[in-house]
Each structure stands twice: as C-alpha cells, then as structure tokens.
Amino acid sequence: VPHYFNKLLAGVKMPSAGVLFAPYVDYKKESTGSFLHYPRHDLVVTESVKQYGLPYLEDFIPKRPGLDDPRREYSPINQPMLGLPPLFVVCSEHEAVYDMTVQLVNNARNEGVEATICVFKYMCHVFSFMLGFIPEGRLSMEIVADW
Q1: For 104-130, how does the pLDDT look when each residue is reduced to its tens digit (9 = 90+)?
Q2: DSSP letter, residue 90
Q3: Which residue, among 107, 116, 33, has the nearest Cα to 76 in the 3D structure?
Q4: Count of CA atoms in the C-beta half-sphere (13 A) of 122
Q5: CB-side exposure of 12: number of CA atoms within 13 Å?
Q6: Which residues have a Cβ under 8 Å from the Cβ of 98 and sit 6 or more positions away?
Q7: Would you say the pTM of this structure is higher than 0.85?
C-alpha cells in the first residue's frame, strides 16, 4: 500500500478484490508511449488532461526539496503493490492510458499480486461505462461480473 495511505488505512480491512477501468496511474509531466500516440483517438483522455487537469494535483502533493517532478513520486504506478488484493483491469489497446495500465498490471504481478487484464481494441478511455451505448461496454461489464 502506498506510504501516503498508511495513516488513512490503519485498521481498515483490505477489500477482497479490486476492479480498475483503464486507470490513470502515472502523473508524470512528460508524455510517453500510448499517451503520445492515442490521445487524438481517445475521446476522454487527451493531452489537455495532462496540460490542464494534472497540475491541480500539485495543490495536494507535498512539496519536497530536490524533487523535479513530485507527481512522479506520488503516482500510483510508482507505489508498492505488495499486499493488494487480486486485481481485474479493463482497458483498450488504443487509449491514451494503455501503457500505464499494462505497466501497473506488470508491477502488481512482479510483487506477487494476482492481476488479470482484459484488453479491447479501438475503444476510448473508460468505454465500459458506455455499456448502454456500445456492445463492448456491456461485454466488458459482463466479463467483470463473471470474474
């Protein structure tokens, strides 16, 4: 569990599982990988999220001398995964957060956390919540329910 949650979670029982829908887990300033290639196709997560949305995090992240990019240190992708419950992650191969989602799953697996990933093609960020509009959204929710 990330160190900054220790006080918050003291005495709280860990849930039996976690389901993540295309988690945005890397808050670093520079864009790489799928974030460079897919924002123009992704209807939800675009470069403007990084440009205008993520700077708001800096109001909540403690400032520490010597940190060039404090958002990187506080990004969930850079936190320990040991002790987390099994995870089920749904994402699209063609959305801006694809690379960070895959990295999160790999990090979890490398620390012994059971992690399952379900990848769809040509969908936008959090397409699962469009289950009333697109069949892939409904299918992804059915897969999660069966898990």
Answers
A1: 999 999 999 999 999 999 998 889 999
A2: E
A3: 107
A4: 3
A5: 12
A6: 22, 33, 34, 38, 91, 92, 119
A7: no
